[in-house]
């Protein structure tokens, strides 16, 4: 049985806590590895390595730090097939989908290659009589990231790339469900020239998370996961004097106006709703057609496409989607589908009994489509995180707009229309963090920032883009006047620019 430990001080190390968790092959249901679950002492060992290495790394000029990421990007491209296959083997998503996962992380690494410019401070000459004022951006010291199973390549890179580029050391606590890829990324960072101790990967569960949140040497924490845990991480980190950015759940709507290109909208819903078996925080899980005619046309076109989804293991190059990640996830999705039926929603396409020959014990859920869903139903309120799309029929535009605005979550939303006035009004008024206009999954590119509103996000600064540079650095402002510019007697009033 393969054993997965940690990556501390620039090398793989075995776990010493005596506690492990199973890593499954989602396509077969078989245990393929055991991953170590760190003790507090193991987490502290990673922090000690980070603390010893960080000052020299912070003193390394930003151009040299950027060169590490130039080389890392090159290595990611060289090893893309290997990395994607490794990711898929533990997550279950298709290899092509895994490549997309890695590339979106790679793009943030490309972005931070500009750290010599991104981390520049500001300068004002003559801010007062013979006074100059300037600011510096300095690293927080040691940062930490707690990442989810659904993007084991992208989200770790969204966190550690800007943190490390800014001169910090970093402790990564990835999901124990698919832990192999993050360790491989750390190995490639060392190969790219990163000093040992700057990036450490500690596998674990709540013990490791709590150790991160209370460790006095960790200055900033980034988290992606469910909203209840995001609230916990944010509150605990803040109460221990750390800055935190925590991203939680989502229920992403897509409004389809009567004038929308229906074929375009249907294809968008298929990819956004069923790609990666719906296990994306930006997956579209609610379709909102405006008007009965629009709704009927939408459902009519969706049904045959959902029924013809090709579902298979990651080794099937023609598969549209694979299994969900674990048996627990499978059971939860099945339960929510049953709950939707009990509450009165119409299950138009039922994928609950899907079985794949030769993979009968895999965690496969066929594509499901609910119609006549209402906001009071649990399947509408809850993030299902599976291949389940709900259709909520709206009588008019204002009713459609009100649905995402009233929902607890505010991660992403999309509108499909040919009407520029409607699109502009929608983008201006809707209280959601990321908006797509004829774009179903509006994840911003690396040089813009990613983050939701409402219960989808806790903290003031978002991921990647310039927000990430602000989050992983602290601003120091200097006001300077040299002796030759000092004249007059002591002043006892508050200095002003009068």
Protein structure class: alpha/beta
Number of strands: 23
Q: In the CATH hierarchy, what is the class of the largest domain?
A: Alpha Beta
CATH superfamily of the largest domain: Aldehyde Dehydrogenase, Chain A, domain 1
In words, what does this structure look like?
There is one protein chain. The protein is α/β, with parallel strands linked by helices and 498 residues long. It folds into two domains: 2-248 and 456-478, Aldehyde Dehydrogenase, Chain A, domain 1; 252-437, Aldehyde Dehydrogenase, Chain A, domain 2, CATH 3.40.309.10. It is 39% helix and 21% strand. It is built from 16 helices and 23 strands. The protein has helices spanning 40-59, 62-78, 80-91, 95-112, 115-118, 154-165, 180-191, 206-214, 227-239, 262-274, 292-307, 327-342, 378-381, 397-406, 420-429, 465-471, and strands at 2-4, 6-8, 11-13, 20-25, 30-36, 123-128, 131-139, 142-146, 169-173, 199-201, 220-224, 243-247, 252-256, 284-289, 346-349, 368-371, 388-391, 409-410, 412-416, 434-437, 453-454, 457-458, 473-481. It has a seven-stranded mixed sheet with strand order 15-16-17-14-13-19-20, sandwiched between helices. Strand 4 (20-25) and strand 5 (30-36) form a beta hairpin. Helix 2 runs antiparallel to helix 4 (95-112), helix 2 crosses helix 7 (180-191) and helix 3 (80-91) crosses helix 4 (95-112). It is globular and about 80 Å long. The N and C termini lie far apart (74 Å).
């Amino acid at each position: 049985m393969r054993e997965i430990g940690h990556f501390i001080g620039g090398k793989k190390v075995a776990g010493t806590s005596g506690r492990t968790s199973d890593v499954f092959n989602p396509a077969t249901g078989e245990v393929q590895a055991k991953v170590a679950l760190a003790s507090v002492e193991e987490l502290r060992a990673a922090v000690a390595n980070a603390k010893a290495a960080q000052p020299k790394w912070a003193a390394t000029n930003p151009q040299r730090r950027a060169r590490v990421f130039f080389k890392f990007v090159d290595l990611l491209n060289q090893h893309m097939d290997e990395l994607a296959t490794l990711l898929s083997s533990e997550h279950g998503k298709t290899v092509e989908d895994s490549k997309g996962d890695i590339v979106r992380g790679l793009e943030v690494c490309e972005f931070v290659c500009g750290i010599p410019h991104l981390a520049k401070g500001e300068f004002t000459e003559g801010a007062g009589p013979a006074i100059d004022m300037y600011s510096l951006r300095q690293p927080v010291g040691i940062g930490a990231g707690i990442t989810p199973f659904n993007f084991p390549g992208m989200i770790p890179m969204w966190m550690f790339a800007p943190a490390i580029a800014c001169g910090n050391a970093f402790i990564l606590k990835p999901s124990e469900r698919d832990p192999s890829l993050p360790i491989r990324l750390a190995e490639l960072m060392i190969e790219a020239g990163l000093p040992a101790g700057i990036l450490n990967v500690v596998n674990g569960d709540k013990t490791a998370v709590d150790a991160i949140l209370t460790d006095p040497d960790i200055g900033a924490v980034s988290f992606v996961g469910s909203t209840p845990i995001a609230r916990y991480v944010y509150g605990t980190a803040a109460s221990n004097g750390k800055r935190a950015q925590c991203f939680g759940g989502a229920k992403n709507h897509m409004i389809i106006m009567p004038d929308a290109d229906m074929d375009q909208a249907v294809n968008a819903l298929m990819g956004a709703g069923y790609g990666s078996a719906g296990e994306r925080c930006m997956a579209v899980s609610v379709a909102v057609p405006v008007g009965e005619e629009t709704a009927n046309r939408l459902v009519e076109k969706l049904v045959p496409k959902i029924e013809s989804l090709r579902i298979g293991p990651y080794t099937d190059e023609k598969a549209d989607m694979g299994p969900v990640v674990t048996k627990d996830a499978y059971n939860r999705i099945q339960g929510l589908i049953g709950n939707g039926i009990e509450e009165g929603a119409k299950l138009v396409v039922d994928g609950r009994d899907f079985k794949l020959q030769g993979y009968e014990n895999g965690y496969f859920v066929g594509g499901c489509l609910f119609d006549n869903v209402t906001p009071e139903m649990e399947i509408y309120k809850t993030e299902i995180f599976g291949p389940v799309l709900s259709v909520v029929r709206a009588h008019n535009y204002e009713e459609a707009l009100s649905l995402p605005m009233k929902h607890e979550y505010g991660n992403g939303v999309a509108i499909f229309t040919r009407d520029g006035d409607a699109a502009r009004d929608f983008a201006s008024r809707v209280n959601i963090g990321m908006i797509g206009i004829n774009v179903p999954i509006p994840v911003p590119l690396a040089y813009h920032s990613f983050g939701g509103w409402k219960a989808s996000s806790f903290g003031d600064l978002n991921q990647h883009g310039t927000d990430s540079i602000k989050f992983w650095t602290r601003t120091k402002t200097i006001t300077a006047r040299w002796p030759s510019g000092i004249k007059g007697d002591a002043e006892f009033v508050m200095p002003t620019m009068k």
